[in-house]
TrEMBL record:
Record keywords, A-Z: Carboxypeptidase, Hydrolase, Protease
PROSITE patterns given in the database record: PEPTIDASE_M14 (PS52035)
GO aspect biological process, one term: proteolysis
Start and end residues of each Peptidase M14 domain: 31-313
Species of provenance: Glaciecola nitratireducens (strain JCM 12485 / KCTC 12276 / FR1064)
Phylogenetic placement of the source organism: Bacteria, Pseudomonadati, Pseudomonadota, Gammaproteobacteria, Alteromonadales
Domain of life where this protein originates: Bacteria
GO molecular function: hydrolase activity, acting on ester bonds; metallocarboxypeptidase activity; zinc ion binding
Stated family: Belongs to the peptidase M14 family.
Name assigned to this protein: Zn-dependent enzyme from deacylase/carboxypeptidase superfamily protein
Keyword flag Acyltransferase: no
Short name of any one Pfam family annotated for the protein: Peptidase_M14
Amino acid sequence: MTTLDPEYPIGTPGRAWDTDEKLQWLSAQSKKRSYFDDVEKRLLTLNKSDYELIKYGELGYANLGFSNYPLYCVKAGKFENDRPTILVTGGVHGYETSGVHGALDFIENAATSYSDTVNVLVLPCISPWGYETINRWNPYAIDPNRSFYSEGPADEANLAMKCVSDLGLNILMHIDLHETTDTDNSEFRPALAARDAIEQGLWEIPDGFYTVGDSARPQPRFQTAIIDAVKQVTHIADADSSGKIIGSKIEQFGVINYDKKPLFLCGGFTDAIYVSTTEVYPDSPNATPEICSKAQVAAIKGALEYAIASNLR
């Protein structure tokens, strides 16, 4: 275990960050890629006869020296409010690249294939600032993926929840696309320890894909369907030397569970029967950006096909 890393460049050991430290952290962030070129441009070129593109909000970060970011969701193909809906979310942690690009690839190449049977709704990049600056947090040093509750501190989470709620849909399945990266240990967990002055364990980063189910609704066969689809594309993570994955016991091959609602995770904000968080490992010597995005698409398709087969026979 580690407490506040004395080598971390921001903060005082043993004291949680206040406004000054958060501003110091923000001043060290910079744009490294473009949400507008990489994400928005692709969304704006979607064929309007096959997709409905909805701007569901905007993040006003221009006053912080960045941009105001329009937020989009996509309805694929036919959309009928009395049918079950499949929800796909990406980019809750903006630095987790394949979560965003996998969602976009799914929209462009596969989403309409299912739209005669279910509604397909995709929020491909919930945290555009995090995408551009390659960050887990938003500009206020808040983790959106611990903020999915009513009137929470992250607009990224609040606006995504409002978008889904306002549509008034019956969410059958929610799959949330993530990555586990080497920077989780080298940057993001040390930053968390520094921000909160609370011990953080540095776990072994798993080499391979795994999923995080919901302990309140685990659906092991559903998780297996995802793993079986993804292992056609990339390798599945084994347990670490302690028999766990990121500190949690393995429930089945390639699967751990979190209690998502009390943790205020994106995967917990709906009452969907089927819930999973994907975790791709982009730093593997056997992975490429293309493989990572293909793994996300395979996970979505495997999940979706299981949910349809199990509930809409």
